[in-house]
Amino acid sequence: MSPAWSFAIARLLGVLAVAVVVGFFLGQVELTVVAVLAGYLALTFVRLYRIERWLRRRRTESPPDLQGVWGDIVALIMRIYRRKQFHKRRIVQLFREFRRMTSAMPDGVVVLGTDREILWFNRNAGRLLRLRRKVDFGQRIDNLIRHPDFARYVALGDNSMPVVVRASLDSDVHLALQMVAYGSQQLLLVRDVTRQVRLESMRKDFVANASHELRSPLTVITGYVDTLADDPGVDLMWRGPLEEMRRQAERMRAVVDGLIELSRLESTSGEAGQDLIDVGGMLTLIRRESLALDRHPADITLTLASDAKLLGSEPEVHSIFANLVSNAIKYTPPEGRVDIRWQVDGDGAHFSVADTGVGIAKEHIPRLTERFYRVDPSRARTTGGSGLGLAIVKHALQRHGASLAIESAEGVGSTFTCHFPAQRVVARTPLAANG
Ligand code: ADP
Known about the structure:
Beta-Lactamase, Helix Hairpins, 13 strands, alpha+beta
């Protein structure tokens, strides 16, 4: 018990004792005690009233000057009040700093609720997405950003990468939008990537133009080198160098052609066309062409497990199939085998090329579709590959909504499988459910 309480109790008992003694002399003990208790109660009420009045006006009035328990209570209230004021000031200061920080951020930030409704956004998000304070609060973000790519991105739910969209139809401002989930809410990060998109498009134009410009002189050089290499009148000493020149010119032609094809794929936006492709016929031809090569594995089999056709761009699908088959042949020794397979199931159509060739170590697999990525650059010089084949395959597959799966073990062989979505498959019988 605090000293103030002990003192208050002692004082009350003392006053009561005095009241009893005085009452005894007056011959009115009860009355005197009641009168003293009534006075004590009245004093308590006055103190309570002063405290209550001060609590209501504590902003402008200083605390009442009370002693004892009441003084302790006032001091306690003052302490709690000061602590609350301190925390409030800190929170307000933190909030102001947060606001200053978010408005200084070059990126836009939108805080979204569980239904993707806008709860808050910073100045840059307002500027980039043309959001209006108050009016747009509570609106669903997908109702305000009405871009098909963004709708697809939101529906897909894979937010590991941002999606780049045009800010509006009439502007060339490009925005990278990325959703970041936290708890049950989400943040939408908005970044102006117009400069990067412009640079990327300049790079693509440069590569496309440079490749086109290189093609004609290369054709002339290749023509002369071919003529000289086949000319029996040329000195024997020149045969070796001419053969090497022919090989290297062929490599250069493959690189230039690859770059032109990649540029074309990159510059054609949207989904691939809808030609009805006779996959069986196309693969039979590719197999026959492969068998006609000077060097190829002894066994090249083709299994057409389905006569389903594919809806897509014929040259692009041919390029996908031919590139994968040509790689399998290039990286498989003559005693090995290559199995080409076309089948459909409930998930769609699947084209696979399995070989018993050199295989690929695990760490290289994720990078194979990068341009000019080669597992063994010195081997590439002899096989004459452009290093662009798989990059072309990946791009062309993306345009068909398809994906590439690579399984491989070093020294055992590799299997490259293309998965085409069911919407692109035209089968005589409906696709059976998988499994
Ligand atoms: P390249 O023209 O060099 O073949 P690609 O883009 O087609 O270029 O392939 C990239 C790299 O992937 C190749 O250099 C090779 O190392 C590896 N690769 C592709 N296909 C196979 C395969 N069937 N077996 C082993 N390695 C392969």
